[in-house]
Design goal:
about 20% strand, about 150 residues, three-stranded mixed sheet, three-stranded antiparallel sheet, Dna Ligase, domain 1, globular, Arc Repressor Mutant, subunit A, alpha+beta, 2 domains
Length: about 150
């Protein structure tokens, strides 16, 4: 089984449990959207516009895609992030259960880059929180990228 198929199986199981628990309908459209997200972007961020492109041949409405994205966030399968505090443009990524990651997000062009910083990682891992056991974390750092800064 390849990496994307394994991811799809895990999130599909979580998705089915969520739909049953909340009394939401299990539809072909919702499952197709989830599958296309896994096929096209199992790691990294993506926009609703990209998802619309991935399912364009299916003829799904924009509302169906946006509603499914909202449900996937509610099911804790996806995370929703803004390009900046004042931005209305949303990006999505998989909720990387158990994977620590950090991203820098340009508030001008929207570019998202994954970064590794062992010092920050060490500080987070060594932090003790009363009555709280750290599982994993996601850190988003907003600012202006080098390209936009030169403009």
């Amino acid at each position: 089984m390849n990496n994307k198929e394994g991811l799809y199986n895990r999130v599909s199981h979580q998705w089915q449990k969520f739909l049953r628990a909340t009394g939401k309908m299990d539809t072909k459209e919702r499952n197709t959207i989830l599958r296309r997200i896994v096929e096209n972007k199992s790691i990294g961020t993506f926009s609703p516009t990209e998802v619309l492109e991935w399912v364009a041949e299916e003829g799904f409405s924009t509302a169906t895609v946006y509603n499914t994205l909202n449900l996937l966030v509610e099911a804790r399968i996806l995370h929703r992030l803004r390009q900046s505090v004042n931005s209305t443009k949303m990006m999505y990524e998989f909720a990387h259960g158990g994977t620590n990651h950090m991203q820098i997000i340009c508030t001008r062009c929207g570019r998202v880059s994954n970064v590794r910083d062992s010092a920050i990682h060490h500080n987070i891992q060594s932090k003790l929180y009363q009555n709280f056991k750290l599982g994993h974390y996601s850190l988003y750092i907003y600012g202006v990228c080098e390209k936009c800064n030169k403009k």
